[in-house]
Each structure stands twice: as C-alpha cells, then as structure tokens.
Specification:
Blueprint (H helix, E strand, L loop, with lengths): L10 H27 L4 H4 L15 E5 L3 H17 L4 E5 L3 H9 L5 E4 L6 H11 L3 E5 L5 H9 L4 E6 L3 H8 L2 H8 L2 E6 L2 H10 L6 E3 L14 H11 L4 E7 L4 H12 L6 E6 L5 H10 L4 E3 L12 E3 L6 H5 L4 E4 L12 H5 L3 E4 L7 H10 L2 E3 L3 H13 L1 H16 L1 H15 L12
Helix pairs in contact: 3-4, 5-6, 11-16, 16-17
Length: 441
C-alpha cells in the first residue's frame, strides 16, 4: 500500500515548518523546563529532541502516539490485543506528559516501551524516525503534528488516525485552509472515528472518503482499571458498614455541586461517606479548601489520613488508584460533565460493576453514554438536587441499583466485538501481518 501523499505541500505548511525551526530553541527551553520540574531524567528529556534512550527492537515495530493520560490508557488494551494477534510485533508508545509516562509505565503491555515524542521541527523529527523507523504509526484522537506526520509518511510509514475526534472550532478552522487540510489528511491511510459526525467532518475537510470509517470510542474498550487489593481491604475496614458514594474525575467548579448534594444526603444518611476523586491531584489544596468551606469533615489520601467514623468526605487525591476506589462502591458520579468539559469514560466505573451518574456536559462520550442512559445503566443529573435524588434512589432501593449495575455491565460487554473489528481493520489497512514481520532495524 502506498504511503506517499498525492497532495502537495502548501505554502502554509512550508511556513509552519520554517516557523517551528526558528522557534525550536525557545520551545525546547520551555518544554525542558517542564520536564525538569517533573523530575524527568536528562536522557529522557532529550527524547523531545529525537535522541532515543532505548534501542530499536528487531522486527516489526508498531508506533502509537497519544496526547496525554486518557489517550495513552485508551490504547493499552488495544496494544494487548494487537500483541496477541501479531505475536512477533514490538510496540512503541509516545506521549508528551510526565504524568502519562508514569501511568503507562505502571501498565506497560508486553513487548512495548515508552518514549517522549520529538518536537515538531526538522532535526528532532528526523532523528526520531531514523532511529525507530516504525512499520506503522497510529495517532490517537486529535493529536496532529504536521511535520511529524508528513515526515513519517515520506519515510515509508503508513499512518492511521484512531479514535478521531474534532471539535466544531477545529473543523471550522481547517475548512478555512482547505488545501493544507487536504494535504495533512492525505498522509493518513485510515481514519477510524468516534462517531458519524466526525467521519462526515473529516470528509468535508478533504479526507478521502474511502479511508474514513465511523467506529466507536476507543476509551470505551479499555481494560478494567487496576485494583490494589491491600489498599482495598484496609479501606474497607476503615469504612466498615457505612453507606458510600463516589464523585470521580471532578474538575474546578464541580466540587461545590457535589458537596451540596452530599450535605443534602447527610440529612437522610448521617453516616454517609463521599469518596471525592479530583481529576487532577495537583488541585488538592483547592479541593480541600472547598470541602472545608462547605463545613464538612474530611480526610486526605495523599497525607496518609485514615477514614474515621467522623469523616464525611475522603479526598482521594492520588494518581493511579481510581480502580481501587471503584471497587469500594457501586454508585459513581462521573465529573467533567457539570461544566462544558466533555465528560470522562463511563465504562471504567461500569467495568468495575458500578451504576453511573453524569451531568449534561458529556459530549466527548456522547456515543458511549447514549446506550448506558437508554438502558438505565447511567442517569443524568443537572443540579445538586438531581444528583442527590439519584444517589438517594440507589442507596434506598437495592433492586433498582442492581438493575442499573447490570445494565451498565451489559453495555461494557458489547464492546468486545468492536475491539476485534478495530484490530482487523488496522492490520488490513496498515499492512500488518504476523506472517511477514519487517526486517527493518
């Protein structure tokens, strides 16, 4: 299958390349400062300049590029399944944030390794591609780096855009530059989109309709979150027989609504415990202040404070433990939805056996939430009172809670066939075969 673009580089693309070359030192200074602040070792910082910290494995190498934590985690189950389908293949995962690198390291699939991606300028990109020379490249969601994409295609690496999602603003911007949009989109052999709307938008922007396939949200097919059973057992002992509910992946401006709902629920269940899991643990001081301002007693996970009989809110402000908290409780409100943020993956709590509550702003997962809400596995709450009512219904009626949990689990189970279809499509369109591994490297 050809991996060269029919469309020609545009003046805008050439201007972009020139500007990124000029701005390269300044961008590197800023990026390196962030990596240093996060404690990333020097040899790994240099990966952003295209200098590898690991050797290229022999044989077929499949490269996945993801933007951040959510996108990175969404490909891990796909890599695990793809590794079973292609037992000789090796995998490279690139992502740009130290947090994503840390999370990936804890759940690294077999025959995989992580690197930071090169800055999108000539020398870093070419060093990266000359060393790794991937047999296929799979970009996840909307992480578009023009030079990296074009140079990869020019070097003979077939590319796919997986889980493609574009905002209306982004689509509008690309439509104003149709020749450049077509040139960039023409680098990809395959687009697997989250929904029909994105598929239509890509075609309207200039993508070859024969290469565009509506799919599903890859995050809905992720493996279950890991559970630390020692922490689970210890926390269960601290909670004892108290009723519990969870507010997970909350963002700034959402905790106030959650805490108002909790205060209302405490009037009916005075010993009720709320596990509050902020999406970004670095917000912990703001979250703790919000809880204190609400007049509620709290304990903080990162400070090592235990849950006592007086604890009304447990702030679980640590990274990588959400699966453990989901195992504690079958009622989960999922944040990022009370504000216009887009929501988060409802299948993570559903996989753990929970029923889900969401606010109205879940547009990034519209196709995932739709069957959950239709079957009763998830319910919609627009206010603190509606959130309180939803939690109260499931706390007071075990039969209705169990029905919601079963409905949520059934939706999860329908995703197995979708993941198999994604793998088959990728292998066909990117010419990946277990029988004919590449000899590059």
């Amino acid at each position: 299958m050809p991996t060269t673009s029919a469309a020609q580089p545009t003046l805008l693309y050439k201007l972009y390349c020139g500007l990124t070359t000029i701005a390269g030192p300044l961008v590197w200074h800023k990026v390196r400062g962030k990596l240093q602040a996060a404690g990333v070792p020097n040899n790994r910082q240099l990966e952003r300049l295209g200098h590898p910290s690991l050797p290229r494995p022999k044989g077929q190498l499949i490269w996945f590029h993801a933007a951040s934590v959510g996108e990175s985690l969404s490909v891990l189950s796909l890599i695990n399944r793809l590794g079973q389908h292609l037992p000789d293949a090796e995998f490279l995962i690139t992502s740009g944030t130290p947090t994503s690198a840390e999370v990936i390291a804890k759940r690294m699939p077999a025959r995989a390794r992580h690197q930071y991606p090169p800055l999108d300028s000539a020398a870093p990109v070419r060093r990266f591609l000359d060393h790794w020379h991937p047999d296929a490249g799979i970009f996840v969601e909307s992480e578009i780096w023009p030079r990296l994409i074009v140079e990869a295609t020019n070097s003979g690496t077939p590319l796919a855009l997986l889980n493609a999602r574009l905002s209306d603003k982004s689509v509008s911007g690309w439509k104003k530059r149709p020749k450049t949009a077509r040139f960039i989109l023409d680098q990809f052999q395959l687009f697997l989109t989250q929904n029909d709307k994105t598929a239509a938008n890509l075609i309207a922007m200039g993508a070859d309709a024969d290469r565009v396939q509506p799919g599903t949200n890859l995050k809905a097919m992720s493996d279950p979150l890991p559970v630390d059973h020692e922490t689970l057992t210890r926390t269960q002992a601290q909670i004892a027989n108290r009723p519990v509910w969870i507010a997970s992946s909350t963002h700034a401006g959402e905790e106030e609504t959650v805490l108002a709902a909790h205060r209302d629920l405490l009037q009916r269940w005075p010993n009720l415990l709320l596990l509050l899991i902020p999406r970004h643990p670095e917000r912990r001081s703001d979250v703790m202040k919000t809880v204190n301002d609400a007049g509620l007693t709290c304990a903080q996970r990162s400070a090592g404070q235990p849950i006592t009989s007086d604890t009304q809110v447990y702030v679980a402000d640590t990274l990588g433990e959400t699966g453990t908290w989901y195992a504690l409780c079958p009622i989960v409100f999922l944040g990022g939805s009370l504000k216009k943020i887009g929501g988060h993956n409802p299948f993570e709590p559903a996989q753990a056996g929970a029923a889900v509550i969401t606010g109205p702003g879940y547009f990034n997962f519209a196709e995932t939430f739709a069957p959950l809400i239709d079957t009763g596995g998830a319910v919609l709450s627009n206010s603190a009172q509606e959130l309180s009512d939803a939690v109260a219904l499931w706390l007071s009626d075990e039969t209705k809670l169990e029905a919601a949990r079963m409905a949520a689990k059934a939706c999860v189970n329908t995703q197995a066939n979708a993941l198999t279809a994604v793998i088959e499509t990728l292998c066909t369109q990117l010419n990946l075969s277990a029988q004919e591994p590449s000899s590059s490297g």
